[in-house]
What we know:
7-stranded mixed sheet, alpha/beta, 33% helix
Amino acid sequence: MQNTKDVVVIGGGLAGLAAAAYLGRAGRSVALIEKAHAPGGRAATQESHGFSMNLGAHALYCGGAAHEVLGELGVRFTGAPPPASGAFALDRGAFHTMPSGALSLLTTGLFGLAAKLEMARVLGGLAAMNPAPLASVPVSAWLRDAFRTPEVRRFVGMLVRLTTYCADDDRQSAGAALAQLQLAFAKGVLYLDGGWKTLVDGLRGAATAAGVEILTGVRATRIGAEGGAVSFVELANGERLDTGAALVAASPRAAAALAPESPALAAHAARAVPVHAACLDVALSRLPRPRFRVALGVDRPLYLSLHSDAARLAPAGGALFHAVQYGPELAGRAAERELEDLLDRALPGYRDVLVERRFLPSLVVSNAVVAAEGGGYAARPGVRVPDLDGLFLAGDWVGPTGMLADASLGSARDAAGAILARGARRPLDRAA
Length: 432
Ligand SMILES: Cc1cc2nc3c(=O)[nH]c(=O)nc-3n(C[C@H](O)[C@H](O)[C@H](O)COP(=O)(O)OP(=O)(O)OC[C@H]3O[C@@H](n4cnc5c(N)ncnc54)[C@H](O)[C@@H]3O)c2cc1C
């Protein structure tokens, strides 16, 4: 690899790959450094016995920034919405029909009459609520003040968890949560054929076609500065890449460690509270109870869905389920037992047809809760690090809009745009 680059991108997840592709297309020389042996990060998919297992349940939000960026970069994918039938709500130990429309609302045993009447109004009214005034309000306060019956509060809380992956109701911004819920209701989500690896492969293809050099299996250790501006990136193998711009597409903690002379990054790393989830992924040789498709916990932060019903993720006749317990109260073996219990109750006999089982006790779903304190999205850092010229950020904790992959890919596009707007600067240009 040539050791002078216009831009060095650190991190080869969705964000780093997309930013590198945009920069390469604009004619910049780009190196992308990924410490793992393959790019992908949290969007990786494990292939095993003909199953494609994402790292826990993944659904692409249609109409969000991720969808747009993938389209702009020509990444092709296919998929389908989650199963519409066979969905149950699990409340106080019993499964109930999921109220998703007028008929199911009328017949479900989940609500009493007062809650049914309120829920009918809520289902019709959520889309029209304005998220902006709720930016600084925690989800817990919003649920308490905006909904009358405890059943409806609990149900809307479940919808918030489902769409944001976050059960930290005292911390999460109700405005951000409502906007995410509205996006999901308005545009829907897709389970992807072949898993999110398809997106990783597509973005990697776009980056390499644009001339990006991808270096895997090596960690970036330091972003060096001269005269208050980025001038090089050091790698764990002893190599040094001279550059006028570095883009960190990794966690806040990784960014702060790479550039310790930035107090702004240290402050963001100290403030960020990650969103965790415990995931139990199970691959089955056949579906034990075909009526069952989805179960969502109302009084407990639980999720179970048959992803292979919608997307091509299993060999013929096989079935792939993802079960999740949303943080923040994850407790290792206790979370595993609760997820096993959910599967045993929802899919009796599943253990007899088990092909593969994977428990992941604490995955980082998002690097930072969008917190009410600080005003929701307003508290997130921008793509340009203010106290070190030439240092940029992308990721699920960066930028003014969107959650999860929408934030990662939206900020990747914005960061690439900010680097291009700054003009090409190499360390040699400054020396000249
Ligand atoms: C269980 C689970 C479920 C999810 N479900 C959804 C969903 O339904 N919808 C949705 O939109 N999103 C979902 N997500 C989130 C989505 O996976 C992420 O938003 C996205 O993959 C993050 O991409 P990224 O590039 O920002 O970060 P990452 O994927 O975290 O990539 C960062 C990369 O940087 C590398 N790195 C870090 N430090 C260094 C260093 N010093 N040198 C070199 N490389 C380094 C890491 O190895 C990693 O590959 C889910 C995530 C999880 C875990």
